[in-house]
Amino acid sequence: MGSGPVGYGLLGFWAFMPWTCRSCVNLVHEERIINLSSVSTGVLLHLNYPSPPPPHVDYIEHLVAPLGSVILLELYRVILSEEPFCPGGAGVIEVSDNYADMNGTWWFLCEDSVGETLAITSFLNTIHVRQRSEQFGVRLNGTIQVKKDTNYKLKLLRGSEESSVESCLPNPCQNGGKCVSSGSRQTCQCTSHFTEVSCELSLSTKEVMGLL
After folding, report:
1. EGF-like domain: from which residue to which, for each copy (predicted)?
2. Which of 26, 42, 125, 210 is least surrounded, with the fewest CB atoms within 10 Å of its CB?
3. DSSP single-letter state for residue 195
4. Domains plus CATH for the chain?
5. Does the structure show a pLDDT above 70 at 178?
6. What is the pLDDT of residues 109-118, one digit of tens each?
């Protein structure tokens, strides 16, 4: 993350990673959860910024906004790749949204000096950005903005009550719901008359919406 984000609740940081072994593969593998507030704006930059990005790094940032929000991500000077890698040993930027459809959606991006701006809006409140470099590092330059999702409740109704949530940490279940892991799936066990993926809607709300 950039060192000078604007807004409340956006954890911004960048890490300097010294490099001594250019023949090592995946010398650094790290994941971070970045909790955003409902008014967060900020920048998303590559590791070591403003120095050149390091090679042989696998670094994932999980961006999590409050429920009922979406994350607007804009990445600059990139081009889409049909393959999960970039030519010439260059690093790749991988953006994933596990809620975008039944199996999730992935974008593989390569750095390009004349590339265009790519805008991605999360389906719900999370999106993941992975910097995966091989022989050469990958430059990342982007911005983040959190906005209210006016279609949030309607989106929840796309799935059934058995739909899984992305992770139990932090607990995504609302209204006293309990997050339970079973193998590779995590689901919310809702209390009382609450229902849907994250126990967000009450049965009375669904009735008013004509969905019962």
Report:
1. 164-200
2. 210
3. E
4. 28-148 (2.60.120.290), 152-208 (2.10.25.10)
5. yes
6. 999 988 889 9
